[in-house]
Amino acid sequence: MDQLSFANPVFATYAIAAALMVLKIMLQGWITVARMMAANGGMVNPEDAKAGPANPKPRPGQLDLNEDVERSRRIHRNDLENIPAFLAIGLLFVLIGPSLLAAQWLLYGFVTARLLHTLAYSTAQSHEVRAIFYSIGSLIVIAMAVWVLAAAIPRVLN
Fold this sequence. Notes:
- The protein is mainly α.
- It has helices at residues 9-39, 67-95, 100-122, 127-157.
- The protein has four helices and no strands.
- The two termini are 22 Å apart.
């Protein structure tokens, strides 16, 4: 299991990329909360519009859609749909022992694509612009999955 050690630069690369993506997921949730607080709205559950420490002065309309809050929620949902697959296949990718350069290109390429996707989404760029960055990240995950399969299948068949 030397491959899953920080002595292995491929694993260290994965660890950095994975930690950045976990932080991205978690911070996006906080960004959504901050946008809800700034708007004093965009809440989704009826109980959220009741009086309490976080909402001392409820007002009508707090459950209405707020585009800034919804945009942040959509970014978060998109991260939750894409980053877990990267985390899983990235770890398996480390185990097949790719070159450091290939690992850096793919792992950091995914991180970059996700960050650019978020930037494009946050600034209301066209679907085509977002799709470019989504596609890059998706193709990287697919490439790593195919690479893992190519390494694993022959070992199972022998």
